[in-house]
Amino acid sequence: MNSSPRSILHRMKFWKGERVAESALTAISLGLIFVLAVFARITPAKYAFQIAEVDPWFYYYSANYMLVHGFSAWFHWTNPLEFYPYGLFVPAYYSPVLPSVSVGVYQFLRVIGISMSFYNFAVEFPVVVTAVSSVMMYFLGKEVGGKKTGLLAALLLALSPANIQQTMLGDFKDEFLAFFFIVPGVYFLIRSLRTKRSADMLASGFFISLTVMTWEPVGPYWFDMVALIVFVGVLARKLSPTLSLKLLSFIAAPSLLASTMLLRTVGGVDHIGSESPVIGAFLVSVIMLVYDNVNERSKRVIKALSVFLVAGIVVGIALLLHSGTQGRILAIVDPFYRSSIPIVNTVAENELTTWFSFYAGFNIQMLLIPIAAYLLYKRGDITAIAMVLFLITATYFTASYVRSEEILTPFAAVASAYVVSRLI
C-alpha cells in the first residue's frame, strides 16, 4: 500500500471533492423539493388569487389591523364587527403570533425593496413558509435515519395531501406557521437526546413555545409529549435522571410558561390539567435521581415501592387530565365523551377521522407507519423510542380529531422515509 505524502494528499483531495459533490447534490435536491412544495400548493391560482375560506379572512383582517395601527394597538383592540354592539376583545380569543410574524416579514421585505400589497403577501405567505418547512424536514429526517431518510422525508412532506390541504395559496391561518415552528422544535428535541447539549434543548424549547402560542387547540400536546418521552425514557433507563430534568427545564417549562402568557384558555384545558404529565415526569425523574444516589438498602426499599409510586403517579395524571379538561379537548382525549357534548359533536372539524380521510391524506404512508414503528422499536435507542411515542400519539389524536392531521404529517413523512431508505 502506497502511503507516501503525495498519495495521502491525493486521497485527501479526492475525499474532499467527494464531500463537496455530495453537499452540492443535496443542496440541488432540496432546491427542487422547495420548488415542488410551492407548485403543489399554488393550484388554486388558476381559479382565483385570493384569501381562502372564512377563518383566513379574519386572520388577514387581524394582521392588517396590526400593520395599520401598530403592534401595541392590537393588544387593546375590541373588534366592533363581532358580537355587535358589544364587540369582541380580540387578544382574549386570538394569538398575536401570526399577525406579528407576518407584519414583521412584510415590513422587512419592504425595507429590502420588495414591494407588494399586504393582501398579496398574505395570499402567498403560507406557500413560501411551508416550502421552507419542507426543506427543514431534511434535518429532522437526517437526525432520525441519515441523509437518505432526510431527503425522502422532505420530499414526502412537500407532496403530502394532508399538509397541502392546510397550507395552500390563500390559507392564511395559524396552522401553516405553527407547522413552521414544529419542525425545528422536534428536530432540536431529537437532536438534544443525542448530543445532550443545553443549547439544543433551549432551541427546542423556543420553537415549541412558539408552536404553543401560535396554534392553541393542540398546544398542550407538545409539552406533554416532552413529559411522556422523559417518563418512558427514564423508566426504561434510556435517559439519565439528570438529563431528564434538563429536558423538562429547558423544553417543557418554557412552553408551559408560553401557554400561561396568553390571555386565552388553552383550548378548554386549565393549567393543572395540561401540566399534570409534566409534573408526573418530574416526580419520576426525581425518584430515579434519588434511587441512583442512595445505598443498596435504600435502593431495595425504593424498588419495592416503585410499582405503587409509578402507578400512583400515572393514576394521578389521568385523573387530573380528565378533571382539568373539558369540551373539545376532552372529546379528543376521550372519544367516548364526544356524544355527550352536542356543540362539539355537531361541528365537522371536531369529528373522528374516517379511513377515507386517512388514506386520502397520507396514502401509502399509513401502511409504512406501523413498519417504521416496529423497526424503530427494535432499534431501541432513545431517539427511536421518542419517534415511536410520537407516531403512536399523533396517530391516535389524528384519528380522534380530523383537524389535527397536521400533528401527524411530519412524523408520518419521517417514518415512511425511514422504511423506504432501508430498502434502497
Description of the molecule:
This protein has helices at 5-41, 55-69, 71-74, 97-111, 118-145, 147-158, 161-164, 174-195, 198-214, 219-235, 241-261, 271-292, 296-324, 327-333, 342-345, 355-362, 365-379, 382-400, 405-421, and strands at residues 78-79, 88-89. With 424 residues, it is mostly helical. Strands 1-2 form a two-stranded antiparallel sheet. The longest helix has 37 residues, at 5-41. The chain is globular and about 70 Å long. Mean pLDDT is 85; it is low at 265-270.
Query: From N to C, what is the helix and strand string?
Result: HHHEEHHHHHHHHHHHHHHHH
Q: Give the structural class.
A: mainly alpha
Query: Helical stretch count?
Result: 19
The stretches of 5 or more residues where confidence is low (pLDDT under 50) are 265-270
Tell me the radius of gyration: 23 Å
Sheet of most strands:
2 strands, antiparallel
Rounded average pLDDT? 85
Provide the β-strand percentage band. Answer: under 5%
Specify the helix fraction band: over 70%
Inertia-based shape: globular
Q: Which strand order spans the largest sheet, edge to edge or round the barrel?
A: 1-2
DSSP strand tally: 2
Q: Termini distance?
A: 33 Å
